[in-house]
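User: I'm new to structure prediction. If I give you an amino acid sequence, what do you actually give back? Let's try with this one:
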Amino acid sequence: MTQNSENTLKVAQQAFENLTHGMATGKWEPLLDMFTEDFTLWFPMGKFHGLNVGKQPARELFEFVSECFGTTLKVTSLDRVTSNETTVIFEFTDEGLFLGQPYKRRVAISLDVRGDKICAYREYFGSDGKSY
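Assistant: Good question. You get back a string of structure tokens that encode the predicted 3D arrangement of the chain. For your 132 residues, that looks like this:
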């Protein structure tokens, strides 16, 4: 692993920790502080479907997550981490109560790293046939 790959993984792992912390507490600032000014967010559905540019759409998305889940959303398994020089992909399962109803999904997020910041976030999710 090259030094750049190691830094990319280190930065992305910190972002993932900040993401899971935000999910559990509703405190998103540590994650948002890691985003570049030209940050891009791709989300698969809803109001944020498609490409969103800037930190504000990300702030709105994560605040929406907190509105829907409260502090019930937890990562229950981290299944795989894949990385290269600039990108890290986390595959995981999360569970919680979505507007009071049981929720469980398999998720993959892709984080692009530039220096010590995250410049892009892409999220994909669905069911594995065993989950809600």
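You can read the tokens as a compact description of the fold. Here is one thing that stands out. The chain has one domain: 3-126.
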